[in-house]
Amino acid sequence: MPTKLQLFDTLSRSLHPIKVKDGDSFRFYCCGPTVYGPAHIGNFRTFLVQDVFRRTLEVAGIKTHHVRNITDVDDKTIRQSQAEGVTLKDFTDKWTQKFHEDCAQLNMLPPHEEPSAVQHIPQQIELIEQLIECGHAYTAEDGSVYYKVSSFKNYGKLAHLDPQALKTQSTSSSGATNLADEYERESINDFALWKAKKPEDGPNAWPSPWGEGRPGWHIECSAMARHYLGDTLDLHAGGIDLIFPHHENEIAQTEAVTQKPLAHHWLHSAHLQVEGQKMSKSLGNLYTLEDLKTQGHSPAAVRYLLISGHYRQPLNFTADGLKAANSALQKLEKLIKSLLEQANKYPSDWASYVKPDIKAWGIFQSAWDSLCNDLNIPSALGHIFSSSREIGQTTEEKSHTLLQALGGLIYALGLPLFETPEKVAIPDSIQKLAAARWQAKQNKDFKASDEFRDELLKHGWQVLDQKEGYTLEKKP
Ligand SMILES: [Zn+2]
Q1: CATH: 3.60.15.10, 1.10.10.10, 3.40.50.620, 3.40.640.10. Which one for 6-269?
Q2: How far, in Å, CA of 237 to CA of 32, rounded?
Q3: How far is the CA of 49 from the centre of ligand 1 (A)?
């Protein structure tokens, strides 16, 4: 029954079937947020594409192992925490929690693992030591360690850089180093794996064989992906802006040591524009979820709009788009309500239909096929609406079967429907308690997790654990 799932791979620039290569689950790594402020909708577009991808795998009957990191040490986090006069940990904890709250409101499944750079310094040091040992990295006088780009013959393969131009550039800039985490193609020099401590880093330095310092940005993903998922991932994902230099550098770091491909498949989602313009601080259009909620938009409409374009095409995020997303959600609810009535069920029964195990797609086969064909969400949505128009009056049994298929599609798309007003209006303080309980539970600190649960109950909120994640319910 399940259609073969295939996806465009950035490295080979072609469509490839998605399947588990080793073991029993599909192992994939997504570059997570740098927690120095609230994530904006451009970041969320990328994370939501990954969320729909994972949900689609689950509906296709493929078990997943999803790892997404938290970057909690870099130039920006250090600079901002010092500007606010708080420790790096307190600062990054605050923004990590905010990120979790936003993810929960956007109905994203939490990753199975969420490692942070600071918690994995030894793994990063070990990888740097291996790179030095095999001649791909060297120590500078100040105690920083750099990757020797000219030592890796496949450098540039993901970003499709011109090898000849690269060669000329590396000859002319031989020995030049680049301490920045992010840079343009024109400034490819040896990049930093370990940054020696500078006075402006304050107390944020860790001991290493090369003296006190901190890891560069790129090494954390190579080290953590390998630690949690092994030498070769089934898939590595991120926004298109990460192809160069971040993912190119991850390939150079990991493959130089393992001599194996870092990933069988590379998934990149395109940029987001706002009202036809590039997102930028100066234009003031780096919207956060909070901004949009303040403007009266629901997280469900934001989610719908952000996933409604094809992930390989730039998406234009507009106020009209949000309105259209809202009416599309209402249309879906109307359709489902009428099917529930014909199946002698209530709206509260809908949740039991939203699950990944589907037996037959029936008239929704084309919608499912669209998702399987390079995650074509706009086409899937189009098919859902056009197939629904065929339904009309139907029997109780048929309605039940249609609801099952529709439930599978809505699970894959992760669209929250029939949100009660109480559920939409969960106060921030309650969201925070629930996120803290979830984090404690992830850390296996069950005592703390129980205390948070009791605290929530005291405020009249019950937390309901799902297979992945949780929901909150207001007690009467
Ligand atoms: Zn990364």
Answers
A1: 3.40.50.620
A2: 10
A3: 16
